[in-house]
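Re: beginner question about structure tokens

> Can someone show what the tokenized structure looks like for a real chain? I only ever see the sequence side.

Sure, here's an example I had lying around. Input first:
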Amino acid sequence: MLFNYKTVDEKGQEVAGAIDAVNVDSAISGLQRRGLTIVSIHEAGKSGGVLNMNIKWLDHVSNKDIVILSRQLSTLFGAQVSAMRIFRLLGAEADNKVLGRHLLELADDVQSGSSISDAMKKHPKVFSEFYISMIKAGEESGKLDETFAFLADYLDRTYALVSKARSALIYPAFVVVTMFTVMLLMFTIVIPKIAAILTDSGEALPIYTSIILGISNFIVHYGVVLAVILVIAGYFTYRYIRTPAGSIAFDRFKLSIPYISTLYRKLYLSRLSDNMNTMLVSGIPMIRAIELTSSVIDNQIYKKILADAVESVKGGKAVSEALSGNKEIPGIMIQMMKVGEESGDLGAILKTLAAFYSREVTTAVDNLVDLIEPAMIVVLGLGVGILVASVLVPIYNIASAQ
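And the corresponding structure tokens:
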């Protein structure tokens, strides 16, 4: 059981954190053995009223927080500051209070005798399996400061790459939302009012005007039903994607969309190369590096490729040979990895590949944005133009007839 506590140490300073114990008496005994005077202690998640409730969906630590934390840990470990003091200092000063709480719990576990990697295993929502394995390798080699520096650089590159892709799509998404909003307002407010005038005139309406009026009439009368159907369909689609079969189908679909599939492939290849290079440099064995890489890549197709590669490497094959034969892994990448294996410098080759594919992703994102922006503006202009023409042409004909 996990207990939150507030105590005062021998110097009179307040110390807050959490301790894992069988019951509250064991927790109190453990704190007292550390020379702490207990101010308050309670089971985690069961006290403090509404303001102290642990709301799960707010219990979030972003990738940016982990990047900054890794950079801070690298600096402090390089300055020969003790692990317990580092985690207490960063936990107390963290802007993200959720991360601060996890760091203080880490400090308590380290003080109790746990290694840093073992203590991190208790916080899987904050520290990934990849992160923990890197730290464990750093502990075994005695180079924790370098390991945290590697992690900070790797996470920084990954965060920058993903952030650029997301940021680049904000403007196109805004244009699409604006387009649908304008169309919806036209079909539900403007066109129904004008439709009454056109109908009462008795004039024959152009076919395109009749189509627009029909769509408007359908949305006005059945729009709510259509929205409910779309919401239900979206919900079941989301549920299906969360299943193993649905996840594979969705990931395969992403790799089949023209142009977008190229962007995704380059992103996954960049992540694969960068992740493996970071772990190999840190001294993690090849098989374990491939296993952890499969957990980092967010695509079931590439996960399967890497899982098969693990079995092949265990059987005695080289990594390049294990990855060959898959259309998702380009031949140039296989050849370069083979050269790295023959020269004994696979890490440097993977670093070069990671940098290459990272630049390719950046270029692809820029090109995609350059293509989407004018396309969306043209589509928006055409959509509004068709609606306006469908309304104005009949009105002009009516006016001319009179």
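Each token stands for a local structural state, so reading them left to right follows the chain. Strands lie at 2-8, 14-20, 37-43.
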